[in-house]
Amino acid sequence: MSTDKYQLFSYWRSSASWRVRAALLYKGIDHDIVPVNLVKGEHNAPEYLAKNPSGLVPTLTRGDLQLNQSPAILEYLEETHAQNPLLPPVSDPVGRAKVRALSAIIACDTHPIQNLSIIKKVANLRGKEGVDVEFAKWVIERGFTAYENMVAKTMGKYSYGDHLTIADLYLIAQHYNAVRFEVDLTPFPCISKIVATVSEEPCVKQSHPSSQPDAQ
Fold first, then answer.
1. Which of 79, 110, 141, 186 is the most buried (most CB within 10 A)?
2. Residues 5/30, Cβ–Cβ less than 8 Å
3. What are the backbone dihedrals phi and psi of residue 7, each rounded to the nearest 5 degrees, phi first?
4. What distance in Å separates the CA atoms of residue 30 and residue 172, rounded to the nearest whole number?
């Protein structure tokens, strides 16, 4: 892999990785995908922990650059690669704040609480084997209820008006998890309508978990 290209350390089914994969493709940024197998514990290897002390994906690198946490990576890409913006213009500070607020419903209030390590631990604390699907569904339903109510006031074809934003990338990845955990999506018509549109974006199709080199 060429060192002048970005390397995205990613796991195929990681929602956080998917957001960044989609943004890189949407902006036309040259990059390589470096799979990190979470099932085999590759994220806990010393060489990976040197890149990402949290032992999570994604990690974005290029030369001496090393970035962790998908919200920070997305903001960095937005600030350094102006093409195909994923936030409203600076002249619309309210719009930018609303897009970030929608994104945070997923990034802060939903996805981290429903992540694999958490639902495994909740199952363990409740004396169950495997993962606690009931808890995961509750978390997603709670998050989607908030998103649905907020996005009803901001949506056009997408979550904020008629342009793709980072909020849509957060949403599409979380929707994948909702389907995986068999969440009833009928109470969320706005989300379903937006997802149907976002799903047709080439960057979303290309970055979909099933299209990744490490997909299983």
1. 110
2. yes
3. -115, 125
4. 22
Contacts of residue 176, defined as CB under 8 A and 6 or more positions apart, other chains included, come to 15, 18, 209
Q: What is the DSSP string of 34-100?
A: EE--TTTTGGGSHHHHTT-TT--S-EEEETTEEEESHHHHHHHHHHH--SS-SS--TT-HHHHHHHH
Half-sphere exposure of residue 214, counting CA atoms within 13 Å on the CB side?
18
State pTM to two decimals. Answer: 0.95
Q: What is the mean pLDDT of each run of 10 residues along the chain (216 residues)?
A: 81 97 98 95 95 97 97 98 97 98 98 93 95 96 98 98 98 97 98 98 98 93
For 74, the token pair is: 């997305």
Q: From CA 37, how far away is CA 43, in angstroms rounded?
A: 7
